[in-house]
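BUG: 3D viewer hangs when loading the predicted structure for this chain

Environment: internal workstation, default settings.
Expected: structure renders.
Actual: progress bar stalls at 90%.

Input used:
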Amino acid sequence: GDVYKRQGNKMHNFGSYWILPLIFMFHDFEELVFVPYWLKDHNPKIHGHVLFGGVNRSDILAAGIWEEFCMYLLLATVAYIMNSPLLVATATLPYFFHLIMHLVFVFNKRTYVPGAITAIIELPIIIVYLYGLTTLTKASLWEWIIVVIIMFVSFISNLKFIHWIMAETMHKLS
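Structure tokens produced before the viewer hung:
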């Protein structure tokens, strides 16, 4: 909170816009490294949904992660140009719930699930980051609601698309 207040309620620090893409990559490196090995020994289904799209190849996972990372970089760039902490804050919310879902998967599976360790590390960081961003955001409640809905729909749609593309690619290469 104080760091942001000392900056006059503006995100003058260009790095502040890059925190979300950086923590995304930190988390997804855990998935990239451990998902293929985890899938060999574990049933990836939870209530009919297949974790990680069932993709067990690091090269295909890396392509999906790269696409998501590019989306985060684009979003950070647009937010910086527009000086819009609202864009970053609302993009952080789906990511926050993504981290929580990793912990839900751990409790459901009663074992380690790739992404759980970085989720535990990152959740407190995300909470502080969100607090800082919300103190900078002067948007009205209706603007928050609209942008939150747009972000959730965009991120969920993109995730479904990426999982579909990765699964199709995996089947074609096998």
